Amino acid sequence: MERKIKYREELNLENEILEEDKKNETKETMSKEDNEAEKIKTELEETTDRLKRLMAEFDNFKKRSSKEREGLYNSLLSDIISSFLPVIDNLENAVNTNTADDNYKQGVELVLKQFKDVLSSLGVKEIEAVGKSFDPELHEAVSSITDENLGEKEIKEVYRKGYQIGTKVVRHAMVVVAN
Q: Is residue 35 one of the residues assigned to a domain?
């Protein structure tokens, strides 16, 4: 009987050792899996961060490209318009000239109106001057006079009209400034 007890004790001991080995193997396997999972999680976070940065860079690129295109368009438009402004000046002079032929004068007025409508549709507007305060951003003073009826740096007369697109000046208004 002693032999049976000893044999049982040895079997129990062997079973305990086997169970403990299985637990250790499971812990090692879980530890390896945890390490791999942590590694994959870190890689995923890095990849996500890179993707977010790349998306932000692309968004900034689109905005920058849009602004450059818009600036280039406005620059080209102002160059083209500035080449037509002397024609408009001459048409305005022709309208203001006295003539015996009213039909001729009406024709010139219609052409001038058409020109101004085209400019207006492109966002070009005349710079207001007479009666306004002198602004060096918009006006170019070619003369100054003393007039007690007008205020300080008030514009009395316009020699040549100025034009602007939005906030960009295409041509400064040439003006006479009082006081």
A: no
pTM above 0.70, yes or no: no
Q: Is residue 151 part of a domain?
A: yes
Torsion of CA 105, 110, 116, 121, to 10 degrees: 180
Which phi and psi (to 5°) does residue 148 adopt?
Answer: -75, -15
> Which amino acid belongs to residue 32?
K
By three-state DSSP, how is residue 105 classified? helix
Q: What dihedral do alpha carbons 123, 162, 74, 61 form, nearest 10°? A: -110
Q: How many domains does the chain have?
A: 1
pLDDT per residue as tens digits for the range 20-71: 777 777 777 777 778 888 899 999 999 999 999 999 999 999 999 999 998 8
The sign of the dihedral angle between the CA atoms of 81, 82, 85, 86 is negative
